[in-house]
Write a structure and sequence with these properties.
By secondary structure, the protein is α/β, with parallel strands linked by helices. It is about 30% helix and about 15% strand. The protein has ten helices and ten strands. The strands form two sheets. An eight-stranded mixed β-sheet has the order 1-2-5-3-6-9-7-8, with helices on both faces. Helix 4 (about 45-55) crosses helix 7. Bound molecules: zinc ion (ZN).
Length: about 400
């Protein structure tokens, strides 16, 4: 597409002076339509919602439980039936660290409605402003009023073997290079992890479906990864990096044209895509509806080795949002933190995509469902789900451009 546009422009520059307006009009209409518009149109709100709803049947999908393992099986079956047939799993061991007692003199969580200090640095390096309310992880089953859901979430996590699944679209021109499009599939807090991170997982699954369509071809490869153990400290993505970083770009078996781990070109993580209702009000409450100026927040980490390259990747998403997203704009920030892209950021250009900035905003209580029993499917309405769909349009558009996607 890019090459074609450049050639067309070159032709017009050389011969444009002599052409009549009618001829130039002809030239324009002769251009093939942008195939990415057609790819993006294959996403739709009802499908995205149905995939989130499908994930919520496994409750909070807490790592190390039967419901987490059942969710991985379900995700893998969905990926295969949507055409992303090259599914694989990695296996790793997870032993939780014993809980640390709170250090004497450590700050207590902020009470509801408290105006936080203005100069404190947020997680990831940002500067929080305005009204802040407390955040935390619910560990009390009785705070879940839905008895059926409470029972579903009852089995505790057991230390030991873990798995996570990914599938790969193999590039036709450069099968040895790939972008990784990812989200974490585990959750906690005694809800359904509908937003955190059913919304990101569903986005990745929907992109896997669109790119795996038999009529879609990409020059480079794309891997769709659903990390486990994010909520315990990014353990699943860290295990992937440890096991596979040295396999990058190696043909195996030699001469086969197969690359089990294509060289990493970029990592795009998706986490909590639905809820941007703005900052808390002075009394600590939140507005009931998605704010009209809601946006998709694309973050890179200023203090990472590849900050410049990661920033460039973030702007690629911002531009793709301008071209392809229907409703909500994208905003770039420099304080990516607390998600699986952190496991990759010193090795490959890495960004995260979210409903809000993680450090300044979510950390200041902008998402009252975060790790709470209220993070269930029925909490959200179409304006919320549409923010996630717009994030999907954004990443799909950018990845289609970056991997040279076309429709046969
Ligand atoms: Zn999350």
């Amino acid at each position: 597409m890019y090459r074609h546009t450049v050639q067309t422009m070159a032709i017009m520059l050389v011969s444009g002076v002599a052409m009549s307006a009618a001829q130039r009009g002809e030239q324009r209409t002769a251009q093939p339509p942008d195939p990415i518009i057609s790819l993006v149109s294959r996403l739709d709100l009802e499908r995205y919602k149905a995939t989130i709803k499908g994930l919520t049947q496994f409750g909070d999908r807490r790592e190390g439980t039967d419901r987490n393992r059942a969710a991985i099986d379900w995700i893998e079956a969905q990926l295969k039936s949507d055409g992303c047939v090259n599914t694989e799993r990695i296996t790793y061991d997870f032993q939780p660290r014993p809980a640390q007692p709170r250090a004497p003199g450590a700050p207590l969580p902020l009470a509801t409605g408290v105006v936080g200090p203005q100069t404190e640095t947020a997680s990831g390096g940002g500067r929080p402003r305005g009204i802040r309310v407390g955040t935390g992880v619910n560990i009390d089953p009785m705070k879940q009023p839905d008895e059926k859901l409470r029972a579903l979430n009852m089995q505790p996590s057991t230390p030991g073997t873990r798995q996570e699944v990914y599938c790969t679209k193999v590039g036709t021109g450069h099968p040895d290079e790939m972008y990784i499009v990812a989200a974490h599939m585990d959750g906690h807090g005694w809800g359904e992890a509908a937003n955190d991170d059913g919304s990101g997982t569903a986005l990745v699954m929907e992109l896997a479906r669109v790119f795996s369509s038999p009529d879609v071809q990409t020059d480079r490869s794309i891997r769709f990864a659903l990390w486990n153990n994010e909520e315990t400290g990014l353990n699943g993505s860290a295990a992937y990096v440890a096991q596979r970083k040295d396999l990058q770009g190696k043909e195996d078996p030699s001469g086969s044209g197969r690359y089990p781990e294509p060289r990493w070109l970029g990592l795009i993580q998706h986490d909590m895509m639905l809820f941007d209702h703005g900052a808390p009000s002075p009394d600590g409450t939140m507005r009931k509806q998605q704010r009209p100026e809601a946006d998709v927040n694309v973050e890179f980490q200023l203090n990472s080795k590849l900050a410049a390259e990661s920033q460039a990747l973030a702007w690629a998403l911002e531009r793709a949002n301008e071209q392809y997203a229907t409703t909500y704009p994208a905003t770039v920030g420099s304080h990516m933190t607390n998600t699986d892209s952190s496991s990759f950021m010193d090795l490959v250009p890495s960004i995260s995509v979210r409903e809000n900035q993680r450090g300044n905003e979510i950390g200041s209580g902008w998402d009252p469902q975060w790790h709470q029993p209220t993070d269930v499917y029925t909490t959200y309405n179409d304006d919320d789900f549409r923010l996630g769909l717009n994030a999907a349009q954004t990443t799909l558009g950018a990845v289609a451009q970056l991997t040279g996607a076309s429709i046969r």
